[in-house]
Amino acid sequence: MAKIDSLEKETREFKTIAQDLKDLVTQLTSRVAALEKGSPAPAVCPTKQVCPSAPTAAKTEPAKKETEEDEEDFELFDDEEDEEEKERIKQERVKAYEARKANKPVLIAKSNIILDVKPWNDETDMAKLEECVRSVEMDGLLWGNSKFVPLAYGIKKLQISCVVEDDKVSTDDLEEKICAFEDYIQSMDIAAFNKI
User: Which residues have CB under 8 Å from 161's CB, separation 6+?
Assistant: First the structure.
């Protein structure tokens, strides 16, 4: 029986605590709603009393008078002169931005490409093949290092690097011009393509 009595006592205490919490949540909800509407709500302490730190009505009255005076000074529509001034400032800023943009150097997009150029057979003159590849000239194309890499059955391929400006040189055009040397070149592949 003593256990039942102690459990009933704890249950009653929990119910009062739960009710206090429920009341507090209700008060906080109403305060938040009042704040969202713009009217100040009194601060509520957990003991259901107005907190001493909360502003009183007497303290808020001068603030109300100040806001009313501010509203009287506020004009709903700006003068035309103000609009003209704003437009003039806007035009000056646009001109300054365009001047800065014009003076800024244009970035040129470049790519580093490594090409694998394959000959027809092991009897192909690789020096002549490289000479043919390097003879391809285009605006925005710069040839780099090259080497001969063993492929199979004694056949070597030419691996050559180049730097191209993306706007000026197309890989399709480059391949077409290199493969035009049909006597020496069987095919061309792109081994690596990296933006710089």
Answer: 112, 113, 114, 115, 143, 144, 145, 146
pLDDT in tens, the chain (196 residues): 888 988 999 999 999 999 999 999 999 999 898 888 865 555 555 555 545 444 444 444 555 555 555 555 555 555 566 788 888 899 999 988 888 887 777 777 889 999 999 998 888 889 998 999 999 998 989 999 999 999 888 889 999 999 999 888 888 988 999 999 888 899 999 999 898 8
Among the listed residues 116, 158, 164, the one whose alpha carbon sits nearest the alpha carbon of residue 142: 164
Amino acid letter at 17?
A: I
Domain count, the chain: 2
CATH number at residue 144: 3.30.70.60
Write out the residue range of the structural domain in which residue 183 sits.
Answer: 110-195
Exposure b/e, 102-131, CB count within 10 A at least 16 = b: eeeeeeeebbebbbbbbbeeeebebeebbe
State which H helix or E strand residue 150 sits in.
Answer: strand 141-152
* The token pair that represents 128 in the structure block: 């002549």
Is residue 40 within 8 A of residue 61, CB to CB? The reply is: no
Q: Count CB-CB contacts under 10 A for residue 191.
A: 13
Question: Nearest to residue 140, comparing CAs of 100, 105, 169, 180?
Answer: 169
